[in-house]
Design goal:
With 233 residues, the protein is an alpha/beta fold. Helices cover 28% and strands 24% of the residues. Strands 5, 6, 7, 8, 9, 10 and 11 form a seven-stranded mixed β-sheet that branches.
Amino acid sequence: MVRSSTVGMGFSSIGRLDPGFFYREPMTNQEFLNIADLAGAYWHYLGNPRPEVPHVRLASGLHGINYLNCSTILAWSQLNRLFAGLIAAKVHAELKQIGEIDWVVGAAMAGVPLAVELARQLHCRSGYVEKDDRGELTKLRFDIAPRGRVLVVNELMTTAGGSTWAVKKIVLERSPLAQVLVPAFVLVDRSSDHKLDDDTPVQSLFTFDFPKYEPGKCPYCEAGSPVRVGKPK
């Protein structure tokens, strides 16, 4: 039996859905963007580049014409529970031979709610890598025992060398005897890599091929469109 689409459902109805609703037929990209739109977390550029309409500076420093803020989505506890449950199902499918997971570690601050809820559902501990005074992810305040099995999770991946990679790197620097599990898991992968800088594969619930531009090679900048950090007004 084909399940019903969530497009057209009210926000409260979506929030009450159980992850099992999507086990046979996964949530589609369109359904996810619809939820993001209802949560006020999605925007995309309409029409040709022009001076009166701004475009977006992404966290990676690249420029884009699609704004997606997973933090705004996961701020809704019922959506955080839903998406963590869908990731947990992928974890069980991918790592069913690995045994127990000791830690779920994410990136502060955006990835913390997802890491905490996923750890709750996987019955293990949660941690996160923090930013230093320069804004770089370098701090891990949690003691991970030797051979401790660590699952890296993030809410959004834009580049192979971004915050998801930083989490794995810092975990291994601070706890070199930890066992970081493969693959890493993210809610949304909008990179063109689908793997980390060390070739670790990444599993995602949703993958988007949103256009991204180097600041000096951005056609929207060339057309006079101002760049904004955050959702354009």
